[in-house]
Amino acid sequence: xxxxxxxxxxxxxxxxxLALALGRRSKAQGVISVAAITIMLVTSAALVVLAETEGPQxxxxxxxxxxxxxxxxxDRLSALMLLVSAIVILCVLLYSLAEGxxxxxxxxxxxxxxxxxxxxxxxxxxxFLSGDLFNIYVGFEILLAASFVLLTxxxxxxxxxxxxxxxxxxxxSSVLFLxxxxxxxxxxxxxxxxxxxxxxxxIDPDIAFVLQAMLLIAFLIKAAVFPMSAWLPxxxxxxxxxxxxxxAGLLTKVxxxxxxxxxxxxFDDPRMDRLLMIAALVTMVIxxxxxxxxxxxxxxxxxxxxSHIGYMVxxxxxxxxxxxxxxxxxxxxxxxxxxxxxxxxGLIEHRSGTTSLERLGxxxxxxxxxxxxxxxxxxxxxGIPPMSGFLGxxxxxxxxxxxxxxxxxxxxxxxxxxxxxxLYAIVKAWNKAFWQSAPADLPRNHVPRSMxxxxxxxxxxxxxxxxxxxxxxxxxxxxxxxxxxRSPYITAVLGGxxxxxxxxxx
Length: 506
What we know:
mainly alpha; two-stranded antiparallel ribbon; 20 helices; 2 strands; disordered C terminus
């Protein structure tokens, strides 16, 4: 069944070519896009089952075995990330199809949108499945190229400015990533992740620490961890609603995934864990303070996105199975909830023509279904029991308290404070947009069911995660055990070559 592994990358890429060839036939492009992402979704689900029942699935591209060839690896972590990403990508695609058809956007934006969106999906899948450091870099660059086009759809001055900021910051992290790759290859002679986990332990620890720091800084920029997060609230809110939603849900999580993969598989220096915990604490607090100060719903959500990345980094910084398990659970929860909230913001903008909290009002009376589909993921984000946000935070707090250091307790306190301030920010937004009367009359445009449906599905998925929290936590426990043990991944990729030394390997 290893032939399944490349499909989430290959199918969207081939479909992007077909969609591009169809030009402005937007309906045909939509059919191809939905079919491609559905195949990606089904394949991802199969890979989750295979990874859970048979262990990591490995395919050597071109028949060249690792460490010489490029390996694609679907272990428990990458398969789960791929599955949730496919669900989100499909829901956002259906939303964007409805939005484009409803507003008569069958022209230039849609013609560009579908091929680019499929390339973005392929880039996400490639980053998750890659067993090679340079191939991860390739995945990031595919994401960068596609995301710049999507951010600047329509070509307005505001979007070009926001897209330029995003590109400059992304290029900076890419250059740093590329330099780190070159230095790692010079020091170890390999870029295969499983092989690197062997080779990096054989070089000078101080050199390994520098390489670890360079990789980590590059990934922290992509994950929008403070102080490298200032670009995000200025870049995301200007894009079309479905673009903002998929970016908020997925792109920062690709950076989080890269941190988890490299920190657990390649490095074991505890000095970096302490720095990560400090970064997590500051990211949570600074991000949520920024959210409280906002009077626009999209910017408020952008700051909460930054803030809640801190929870995931906190789990990683604990460097134990419980912390990693809770971090993975929180990543899955946050992808669905944050994407749903940005889609709701798009529905609000579609209905009322604005997302300014100073201009909105009375939506609970005039659009009760919209109020419900905002309220559910918003309370989930704030961590109200027994929703998945609460369960994820409890896992992180318990893992942090078990470590018992002063810094861990301080970060736990910051996590609790951030949760309270998130609730405050969300309630403030709810009161202004849904409960209080609008200061002036606003448009009451009809929200199509075809836009509302995918949003409701994602909002409901957050509840389903809470209902299925037990089995999901069991899965993330197994994934975290594999990550901390390292051996399942290394053995699956290298097989009998797992004990290669610097002298033996190429």
